[in-house]
């Protein structure tokens, strides 16, 4: 069944809509629900010689997309809530999909419709950050569009891996997902967004990356959308690939760890690289495009270095891409810090440090495992070398707009009373994880990091506080399961009893497998505290001491070959 043709009013008709030969503007009805609605019945529409809203919807969708099984295989735009589309004129659709299909007469040129709405794209968002970014967008009158490169089936933690429905329910206006079962294509995504932009009379102002895996996509997507507020495209890979990252930072004259790329599938080139770089054990072997401390190994021997190298080269990376090489690095001594920054040409220095976090880690079986992450004062003279170094790293990898997150190591010079000789671990052109921006907003007077992030990515002037010295200090506690098995019960998880309690998150659900944590997503729970430094440290130690779990052992698999019940003769 072909779409119903759209009648065209006479050119001089006062009722003629200003559209691309599409009848009444769909965007006016979707984005301005309070405005006068067009006729919804055939009788009313006959007098004005206009298409009804239901027929308009059918024409927009097209006959080939009316089968639900077919429509799920297409790139779709998911919407939720009030909708002008109805079934049989009575029942309102709550959750529907609109295919970005448009019928345009190329012969009849008409003046484009005026822009009705500015919009912002959130790339691969998470629920905790979404809530704050949506509020910031509302203050600026922005429509929020979420792009989900890899649709979630709801089996994982929804706060970290939300479904389209979950994003819509938290306030996202529209969600774009790629075709079901296919890989994310940045060019196709940009084409779909440009079509949606034209259909709904939108104007996208910026693209915000919301997690590590979307850092290199965001600036490319922004450029394909015709935006100028994007980071240096020539250094896009240097903001994601840790080998290219070290090369860019080293070329800027900043100190980086010794490193080598290893490509042999059996890991045989690891020993030669260790010898040529004159490294002492332990050494670090990691995947070049990792995230959340995944696939990072501290190797105490040559055998372990070769084994880990071979595993990485032959595997898929945490981001779902085939790993081309493993990265060998020298093991850096000292303490680890996270330096969070905001980049915008409207700031005096172009890059501004907003908050600093000191990581407390322990070496557990070849992995550096988090215990606490503690906020410190970025204006304290002790951290001045770290601030200058982190600013230089951001400039070296071309970060010009939005948030940045620099992880580095440094050691304390007692004589000079300063942290000295910082060396980069990695840098990300994104908002820091672990609710660090939320904690900074709660502790630094007059600082609104999510407002500043939206302004920076949209090219607006950024409002900065007089000082980033926190009135109170924040601390994140990492709580690991003390047993291995199927989770049955938490003990000591009533964190509200702690005087400095702010919030918490359970990462594991009852019935799931738990064990001692090695990576960020393998902890049983997170806890955030706010207060004086002595108080939050006391409560953090108490929370870790009193937290434990009850588990049951997973059932043993039945073996095909059973042991004999009696000795054989």
Q: Can you describe this structure?
A:
- This protein is α+β, with helices and mostly antiparallel strands and 569 residues long.
- The protein is 25% helix and 25% strand.
- The chain is built from 15 helices and 23 strands.
- The chain has an 8-stranded antiparallel sheet, with helices on both faces.
- Strand 16 and strand 17 form a beta hairpin.
- Helix 5 crosses helix 14 and helix 7 packs across helix 8.
Keywords summarizing the entry:
single chain; 569 residues; alpha+beta; eight-stranded antiparallel β-sheet; 15 helices; 25% strand; globular; disordered N terminus
Overview in brief:
It is built from 15 helices and 23 strands. With 569 residues, it is an alpha+beta fold.
Look at the helices and sheets and give the structural class. alpha+beta
Largest β-sheet summary: 8 strands, antiparallel
General shape: globular
Count of DSSP E strands?
23
Stretches where pLDDT is under 50 for at least 5 consecutive residues are 1-6, 11-28, 35-47, 61-65, 81-87, 558-569
Q: Count up the helices.
A: 15
User: Biggest sheet: strands side by side, in what order?
Assistant: 17-16-13-14-15-18-22-20
Helix content: 25-40%
Task: Give the C-alpha Rg.
Answer: 27 Å
Please state the average pLDDT score: 81
Q: Beta-strand percentage?
A: 25-35%
N-to-C span: 78 Å
């Amino acid at each position: 069944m072909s779409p119903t043709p759209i009648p065209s009013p006479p050119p001089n008709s006062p009722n003629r809509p200003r559209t691309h030969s599409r009848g009444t503007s769909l965007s006016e009805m979707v984005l301005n629900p309070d405005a006068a609605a067009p006729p919804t019945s055939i009788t009313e529409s006959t007098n004005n010689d206009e298409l009804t809203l239901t027929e308009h919807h059918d024409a927009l969708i097209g006959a080939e997309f009316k089968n639900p099984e077919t429509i799920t295989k297409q790139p779709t735009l998911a919407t939720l809530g009030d909708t002008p589309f109805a079934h049989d004129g009575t029942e309102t659709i709550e959750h529907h999909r609109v295919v970005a299909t448009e019928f345009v007469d190329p012969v009849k040129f008409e003046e484009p419709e005026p822009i009705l709405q500015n919009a912002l794209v959130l790339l691969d968002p998470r629920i905790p950050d979404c809530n704050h970014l949506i509020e910031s967008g509302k203050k600026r009158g922005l429509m929020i569009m979420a792009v989900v490169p890899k649709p979630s089936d709801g089996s994982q933690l929804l706060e970290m891996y939300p479904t389209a429905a979950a994003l819509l329910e938290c306030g996202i206006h529209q969600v774009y997902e790629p075709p079901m079962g296919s890989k994310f294509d940045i060019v196709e995504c940009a084409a779909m967004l440009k079509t949606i932009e034209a259909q709904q009379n939108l104007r996208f102002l910026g693209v915000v990356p919301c997690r590590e895996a979307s850092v290199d996509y965001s600036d490319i997507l922004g450029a394909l959308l015709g935006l100028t507020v994007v980071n240096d495209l020539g250094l896009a890979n240097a903001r994601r690939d840790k080998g290219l990252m070290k090369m860019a930072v080293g070329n800027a004259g900043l100190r980086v760890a010794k490193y080598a790329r290893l490509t042999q599938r059996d890991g045989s080139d690891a020993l030669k690289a260790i010898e040529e770089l004159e490294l002492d054990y332990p050494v670090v072997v990691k995947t070049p495009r990792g995230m959340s401390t995944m696939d990072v190994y501290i190797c105490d021997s040559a055998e372990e270095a070769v084994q880990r190298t071979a595993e990485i080269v032959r595997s898929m990376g945490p981001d779902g891409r085939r790993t081309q090489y493993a990265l060998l690095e020298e093991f850096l001594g000292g303490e680890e810090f996270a330096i969070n920054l905001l980049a915008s040409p409207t700031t005096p220095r172009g890059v501004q440090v907003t908050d600093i976090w000191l990581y407390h880690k322990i070496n557990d079986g070849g992995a550096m495992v988090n215990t606490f992450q503690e906020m410190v004062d970025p204006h304290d003279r002790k951290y001045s070398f770290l601030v200058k170094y982190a600013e230089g790293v951001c400039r070296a990898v071309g970060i010009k707009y939005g948030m940045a997150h620099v992880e580095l190591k440094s050691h304390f010079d007692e004589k000079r009373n300063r942290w000295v000789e910082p060396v980069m671990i990695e840098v990300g052109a994104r908002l820091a994880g672990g609710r660090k921006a939320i904690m900074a907003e709660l502790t630094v007077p007059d600082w609104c990091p999510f407002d500043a992030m939206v302004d920076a990515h949209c090219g607006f002037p950024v409002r900065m506080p007089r000082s980033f010295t926190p009135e109170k200090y924040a601390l994140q506690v990492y709580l690991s399961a003390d047993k291995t098995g199927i989770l049955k019960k938490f003990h000591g998880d009533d964190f509200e009893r702690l005087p400095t309690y702010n919030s918490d998150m359970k990462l594991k659900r009852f019935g799931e497998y738990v064990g001692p944590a090695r990576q960020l997503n393998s902890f049983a729970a997170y806890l955030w505290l706010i207060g004086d430094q002595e108080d939050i440290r006391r409560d953090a130690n108490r929370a870790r001491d009193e937290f434990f779990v009850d588990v049951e052992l997973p059932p043993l698999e039945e073996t095909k070959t059973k042991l004999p019940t009696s000795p054989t003769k």
